[in-house]
Amino acid sequence: MKRKDTLIVALVPLALLLIPLTGQLTVDGWNWKWNDFLMAWVVFTITTAFLRFLVTRPVANFSYKAGAGLAVITGFLITWITMAVQIIGDENPGNGLYLLTILGGFIGVGISRFQPAGLAWVAFSMAASLLLIPVVAILAWPTDFNPGYPRAQMLSAGFAAMFIASGLLFRHAAGQNRRSGETKAA
Q1: If we measure between CA atoms, which residue out of 80, 112, 113, 85 comes closest to residue 99?
Q2: Are residues 23 and 94 in the same domain?
Q3: Which of 38, 61, 65, 70 has its CA at a distance of 20 to 30 angstroms from the CA of residue 76?
Q4: Are residues 74 and 159 in the same domain?
Q5: Which pTM value belongs to this model?
Q6: 84-128: pLDDT as tens digits
Q7: 38 and 94 inside one domain
Q8: C-alpha pair distances (Å), 126 with each of 106, 120, 170
């Protein structure tokens, strides 16, 4: 990683932490502890690093960059919402399934070695997982399902749609890479 990349990955999360710090100092009822700031910093840093690495790659085409950006932003939103307000009830263990889906996505990205065809499969798999989480949660832990099944399923479907769009962009990028490889070989 270049020095410029390191500075961006280090400073952008710190700048973003000014938002909750301002809220902590000015808004009544905003009661973050030091560990909340630490978790926010970790999430901001990972998101910034992935955006910097994937979206600004000089060798990637626009479809790849757009798919990567959409996937990273979707993963950030799922993580942030799950950690901050929880999607399924206040104490429902089903919320952990969202974080497991994100962890599975990280593992899939590593296995695919950042290749667009593999990333498309990862995005489609994450979308399928997201659609199943509310079903599993209501069957396994029906007592604490605070927003109701339809709302939780709608939110999961929205996130799944974002991953499907990301997968389609990665699939398009893989097709462009194959065509450009055929053109160079000919």
Answers
A1: 80
A2: no
A3: 61
A4: yes
A5: 0.84
A6: 888 887 788 889 999 999 999 999 999 999 899 999 999 999 999
A7: no
A8: 10, 10, 14
Residue 177 included in any domain: yes
Same domain? 6 vs 32? yes
**Alpha helices by DSSP H, 17-61:** 18-26, 34-50
Tokens 């910097």, residue located: 52
Cβ atoms within 10 A of the Cβ of 144, count?
15
Angle formed at CA 169 by CA 166 and CA 69, multiple of 5 degrees = 50
Low-confidence residues of the chain, pLDDT below 70?
Answer: 1, 59, 180-186
Domain-located, residue 61 = no
Same domain (yes/no): 103, 153: yes
Taking the C-alpha atoms of residue 112 and residue 133, their distance in angstroms, rounded to an integer, is: 24
CB 117 within 8 A of CB 172: no
Q: Kindly state whether residues 52 and 74 are assigned to the same domain.
A: no
Residues 6+ apart with CB under 8 A from 169: 63, 64, 66, 67, 70
For the chain, what is the domain count? 2
Tell me which residue has tokens 């991953």: 163
DSSP state, residue 93:
T
The continuous run of DSSP H or E covering 27 comes out as none
Query: Tokens in use for 104?
Result: 């599975």
